[in-house]
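Appendix C: a fully annotated inverse folding record. The material below is reproduced so that readers can follow the format used throughout the book. The structure is listed first as tokens, followed by the designed sequence.
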């Protein structure tokens, strides 16, 4: 046994990382493009919780690029409903800072990033609707 690692007698421990890898799409700061980033998260049994986590990731921004400027809101999700193949996300927005820089096209590209992320990660979802305070079609930050 001399010259050997004393811990070599024990079996190695199994990997305890039970997080799943998902794809999250982020709006770029040009207001036109979307890029994909892989993230590891613990998956909940409830799709509504997964969707909430995905949207919060998009709002906070990419881990590698400074995309926070592309989403100038501090969005609070009021409710998430899943009805067959449709997902409805209802935001309750905090007031937008007057000094916030609004990138033209950023709201549409944010909605597209949310839609693509939800469709990619939640099976059976074909349509994503975004509402603000229960009203469909309202602008979240662009006039």
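Designed amino acids, in order:
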């Amino acid at each position: 046994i001399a010259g050997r690692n004393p811990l070599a007698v024990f079996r190695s421990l199994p990997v305890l990382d039970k997080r799943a890898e998902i794809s999250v799409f982020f709006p770029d700061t040009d207001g036109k493009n979307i890029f994909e980033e892989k993230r590891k998260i613990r998956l909940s049994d409830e799709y509504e919780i997964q969707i909430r986590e995905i949207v919060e990731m998009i709002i906070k921004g990419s881990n590698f690029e400074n995309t926070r400027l592309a989403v100038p809101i501090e969005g609070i999700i009021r409710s998430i409903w899943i009805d067959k193949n449709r997902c409805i996300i209802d935001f309750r927005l905090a007031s937008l800072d007057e000094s916030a820089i609004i990138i033209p096209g950023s709201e549409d590209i944010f909605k597209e990033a949310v839609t693509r992320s939800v469709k990619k990660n939640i099976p059976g979802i074909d349509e994503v609707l975004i509402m603000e305070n229960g009203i469909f079609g309202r602008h979240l930050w662009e006039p």
